[in-house]
Structure formats: C-alpha cells, structure tokens
Amino acid sequence: MLIKCILLLCVFQVTLGRYEPNWESIDSRPLPAWFDESKVGILIHWGVFSVPSILSEWFWYQWETKTPLLVDFMKNNYRQDWTYPDFANQLTAEFFDAEEWASLLNISGAKYVVMVGKHHEGFTMWPSNYSWNWNAMDVGPKRDLIGEVGAAIRSKTKLHFGIYHSLFEWFNPLFERDRSNAFKTQDFIAAKTMPELYELVNKYKPDIVWSDGSHAADDWYWNATTFLSWLYNDSPVKDTVVVNDRWGINVNCIHGGFLNCGDRFNPKVLQKRKWENVMTLDKYSAGYRRNAKLEDYFTMIELLTEVAQTVSCGGNILINIGITKEGTVVPIYQDILTKLGKWLTVNGEGIYSSKPWTTQNDTISNYVWYTSKVINNEPYVYAIMLEWPKNNTLVLGAPKTSSTTVVSMLGYTGGNFSWKPNPAGGIQIMLPSMNVNEIPCNDVWVIKMQGVD
C-alpha cells in the first residue's frame, strides 16, 4: 500500500501544472506578460513570392487559378514553360544584411518581430530537413535566413523574435491527398507540418509561434493541441512563448494564446481576451509589390489611428512589411518605420505597458482614444488625439475632474495645461499656442491626465 501511494504521488507531481492536449487546459495557461506590455510588433513577409512581386504574396495560387492580371503578366514576360519553382533561383538576397534589419526594427519602436518562416507556397526560409530542395539553403540565397535574422535581433536589440509558419501548402501532393480523403488521413501532418514546427522551436527558440493557414481544416487534423501541450510543457521556450489562434478553422478567434480573428481585425471596442491587429502597410498585399503606388500605403495618420484604436481596446498591433527578392527594405517602409519610432519615442508612455481605460473612445470628441497606466502607484489617463482641436480647446466627455487634476502633453516641455470642468460633463482643456519647435509631433498627440476618475 505504501509503494502504491508513493507511485500515485509521483504521478500527481509529474502531471501537476502540466497542460493537457485539449483546449480547456491549453487556454488556461496565463499569457506571458511581455506580450501584452509590448503593444507594437513588426511582421516580415519574404519568400519566393518576392521575386515576381506583383498582386500579392498569394501569387502562385492566384496564377494557378487563372487570375487574368497574372495570366497576362506571365504570358508577356516569361517563357511558356515557366513554373513557379523557377522563381526560387532568383530569390538572390544579395543585399540582405540582418544587422541592418535589426537596426531599423529597433528604431521603429516595435518590441517584437515575426518573420515568415514558411508561407503557403511551402518554401522554407531556413534549411529544413523536411523541405528538401525547396528551402533557402538549397535554392536561391543558399543561406539560413531565419537563423541570420534571429541572431541579429537577439544580439543587437531587445526585441522578441517570433516565426510565422503556414500549417498547409497550396500544392503539396501529400496535403492534396489528405484533403481528397476528407482529412481522414494525416500523411502531410506527419511528414511536414509537425516535424517543421518542432524543428523551428528546437533550433531557433522563438518567442512567438505565429501559425497561419489553418482555414483549410479543423484543429484535430493539424494535431494542434498535441503540439501546443508540448510547446507549453517541454519545449525550450515553454515559459516565454506565445501563440495565436490559427490552429484550425473551427477554433479561429476562440482558442489560443491571443486572438487574430482574421487579417486587419480592428473591432474598435474593448475585447474580453488579448488580441492582435495584424495589418499591412501596403493596403493590398503583405508581400512587396513592385507596381504599388504611393497612395496604396498607409499614411502616418492612418497608421497611428490604427495604433491608437488597437491599444485602446486592449490589442497589440502587428505591422507588416514586404521584402524585395534582393533582401532589402524599400525606402517607403524605412520612412514609415522611422517616423513610427520617432512618434513612439515621444508618446510611448501612453502605449507600452498601458491598459484599457473605462472608456475607449471619447463620448464628445470621437477623434480621441484612451489608455491608462499606473506609475509609482499613481493612476494616469492618456487621451490620444487623432486631430488637433478647433480653437485649441479640447472637450472631453469621459474624464471626471477633481481638485487634484493635472493635465499635460507628452513631449511638451512648456508646462501643464489650464483646464476647467465642461458644463455638460467632462473637461475642457485649453491647449497653448505652440511654435514649430515646441509641438512634440507632426501627427497625433497624447494628453496626459492625473487626478481624473
């Protein structure tokens, strides 16, 4: 009896605190604090699709499904027997410099970066043992691109490094066979998806495993909960890693570490769970497009509006850029990321580690979004102004003033602002006239309030 009790105790100790391969157990894992505190990340799309670099990163699929633009493009510019894999040799990466990337990403003010390790085309940006002759070491660059970027990020910055991985591949014969069998077989999962995921985690130790492509089948086909229980229990990143919700068409926006709920998800209302707005600076493509026009890109005001609305409602924002086949970040992306970094240098106090306030969007001035933070046991409220108020008077309906209310602007060194209670409720803030050297930013300003309810 004593031996039996000891054995039961050992089993109890082994299973205590472990996550079982089911969603109830996996969803019970607390989200590592660093992710919510970070608020801003950068997603990098780079792959064979960067060679044709027209229409989108879905080029191969769109060409095979006879999208007229691409049919004409290929007919007019390539020989008749050209195939998509022929593009891989032209993914040259001759100007790729991982340390230059790391410097730019650091300047952007982002706190984490996610790089595409494998998109739906199946080409792996690392020398995978499970993608023979269709990876960046065997074809094209002849380099471990994931490894170089990860090493530069970790040695030159304090950013967290994550990897995007597509669960499926458009034209992989094993996947096509599983699909024709109504996913009752899992040959593709056994030969490709799961071995690649374990390989990525064990080799590169990412802080984020950003899954995609789950829309093709339910979670049980992908063996999602089996992998995630290992990731949380036994992987080398078990204590720090975070994952998204794309682990099966039936679990999107329901299960996972944080929720994406589809691309460009921006609900503009407070969410019950941690979520992420993954959006592209090119409004029409995540991959780099050679024929993009200036008006196709987000302006700084448009981008900062997304940042304000997302963080106010409890989300993180993951801002995507596309890379050229040569491995460069084109000037339009450099410019946007540099300007974003300058804005966050001034206004990051109201963004990083902030929490949603009791109100997200102001009840009078709808161009104002709120965040909050406690600093040295003192609560502060931040009003992010997407426009400069008329007559230099900002009228806010949500804050309730007190005898201790103090109002200032992040980055403004001219002192506190005068204010008075608004007759209909809230506060009227009188903004001083500022010359060009005094105004903290060109676009979007953050009011800091102390002593408001």
TrEMBL record:
Record field: catalytic activity: a neolactoside IV(2)-alpha-Fuc-nLc4Cer(d18:0) + H2O = a neolactoside nLc4Cer(d18:0) + L-fucose; a neolactoside IV(2)-alpha-Fuc-nLc4Cer(d18:1(4E)) + H2O = a neolactoside nLc4Cer(d18:1(4E)) + L-fucose
Enzyme Commission designation: 3.2.1.51
Biological source species: Mytilus galloprovincialis
Pfam families for this protein: Alpha_L_fucos, Fucosidase_C
Signal peptide (residue range): 1-17
Described function: Alpha-L-fucosidase is responsible for hydrolyzing the alpha-1,6-linked fucose joined to the reducing-end N-acetylglucosamine of the carbohydrate moieties of glycoproteins.
Protein name in the entry: alpha-L-fucosidase
Keywords: Glycoprotein, Glycosidase, Hydrolase, Signal
Family: Belongs to the glycosyl hydrolase 29 family.
Complexes and interactors: Homotetramer.
Keyword Transcription regulation: no
Highest taxon above the source species: Eukaryota
Domain (Glycoside hydrolase family 29 N-terminal) ranges: 17-349
Start and end residues of each Alpha-L-fucosidase C-terminal domain: 360-450
GO molecular function: alpha-L-fucosidase activity
GO cellular component term, pick one: lysosome
